[in-house]
Every structure is written in structure tokens, then in C-alpha cells.
Specification:
Elements lengths: L4 H7 L4 H7 L4 H11 L6 E5 L5 H6 L7 E6 L2 H10 L4 E6 L12 E7 L7 H14 E12 L4 H18 L15 H10 L4 E8 L2 E7 L1
Parallel strand pairs: 1-2, 1-4, 2-3, 4-5
Antiparallel strand pairs: 5-7, 6-7
Helix pairs in contact: 6-8
């Protein structure tokens, strides 16, 4: 059964950080790598789907004075992020990053970690174009996500999501928890189509993959 996205993560808040670090292949390595990849001198950061801020746990070890704007659907996760980092410069927005205004030339860098694999390529393309506009010249977007390598597998997941939505009578525009990963090549092409000048794979451990996109 498909669950509404925010409800899914609210139910799983207890133990979520431990699960991501210990049970999801490649996540610990990629949290560490994302922190290393953040350009030196970054002062303002946009974190899409920030959740409990696991990626920020690692990033703050390298950039303690960073000003972060985090966007997430789940209030309980944002509350946990605030609890973990009460002394940090956090602007936390409970809402959909597809709807929240991101501004223009507002951030030195943007990141997302294990959130984009729930959405279609067209929906992500529009978001990425907004992220690119929100970045200052020379800014980067670093995405770590669940990505695959087989086109048929990608198509299967989207077909399964469509089938389950229809069986449960769910609207097509709602946010429901189900993994629909793109292939690495497709994901990179979507970023380029959104206007990023260059996209590079930086690390892949199992299906956990980091792409770095430059403006």
C-alpha cells in the first residue's frame, strides 16, 4: 500500500538516522563525500528534502558557520533537525520544494540527499531549473540519490507506481512513498536539460550515487 510521503517519514522518525547510516548501502560513504565536495568558502546552502539533516551533521563538521535553508515535507523531521543543531543558522521550511520559492542568486551551493528518486524526470527538470537560478554564478548542486543502470528497471518502477495509484484510487499529483529511481545517465541528462553546464559522477557505492552539477 502506498503511504502519503509526510506520514510515511513521520512514522519512521525514531531510528531513521541509524537506518540510513547502517542499512542503506553507500549512504555513510556518500554523507562523508558530500561534505568533502562542498566548495570551500560556501556560506549559504540550500538543502532540498533535508529531513533530519544527516548530511548536515557531516557538513557542519567542515563548515560550522554555514547558513542553511532546508525544505522538507515532514514537520517532525524538521523538528529533529532543529533539536540536533540548535546553535546553527537554520531557516527551515515545511513544504514541497516544488512549490516553495527558491529565489534567484541566493545560494552558493545546493544539495539533496536520497529524496529525488520519488519523482518523474519532467517534474525534476523544472525543479532543477529553479535550483540553477537560485544559485549564484559558479555555484554547484550536489545530489546524492538512489540511481540504477538499466532502462527497463526504470520503466518498471514507474509502471508499478502507476498501477498502485490506480488500484488505490489515488490522485496522480499527490506525494506517495515509492521508489522510482532514474538511471545514472538519465538523471545526469535531466540536470543538463535544466541548464546546468556540466554534470559529473563523483561517487557510486552500490546504487547510492553522487552527481555534481555546475552552473
Amino acid at each position: 500500500m502506498l503511504e502519503e510521503m509526510s506520514a510515511f517519514f513521520t512514522k519512521r522518525l525514531n531510528g531513521y538516522d541509524e537506518h540510513m547510516l547502517k542499512d542503506v548501502g553507500g549512504c555513510r560513504e556518500c554523507y562523508e563525500e558530500m561534505a568533502r565536495l562542498l566548495p570551500g568558502g560556501t556560506q549559504t546552502l540550500l538543502d532540498l528534502g533535508c529531513g533530519t539533516g544527516l548530511e548536515l551533521d557531516f557538513i557542519f563538521q567542515r563548515a560550522a558557520n554555514l547558513a542553511v535553508t532546508g525544505v522538507d515535507l515532514t514537520r517532525a523531521m524538521l523538528d529533529e533537525l532543529r533539536r540536533k543543531h540548535p546553535d546553527k543558522a537554520l531557516t527551515l521550511i515545511c513544504g514541497s520544494y516544488f512549490d516553495v520559492p527558491l529565489g534567484e542568486n541566493a545560494f552558493d551551493a545546493a544539495i539533496s540527499f536520497q529524496t529525488m528518486h520519488h519523482f518523474t524526470a519532467p517534474k525534476k527538470r523544472g525543479l532543477y531549473a529553479r535550483v540553477r537560478r537560485a544559485l549564484r554564478p559558479g555555484g554547484v548542486y550536489i545530489e546524492c540519490d538512489y540511481m540504477i543502470e538499466d532502462d527497463d528497471e526504470e520503466a518498471f518502477h514507474f509502471a508499478e507506481l502507476d498501477r498502485m495509484r490506480r488500484e488505490q484510487g489515488l490522485p496522480p499529483d499527490g506525494f506517495y512513498h515509492y521508489d522510482t529511481p532514474l538511471t545514472v545517465a538519465h538523471q545526469a541528462s535531466v540536470l543538463r536539460e535544466a541548464g546546468f553546464a556540466a554534470v559529473e559522477q563523483k561517487l557510486r557505492v552500490e546504487n547510492t550515487t553522487i552527481l555534481l552539477a555546475k552552473t
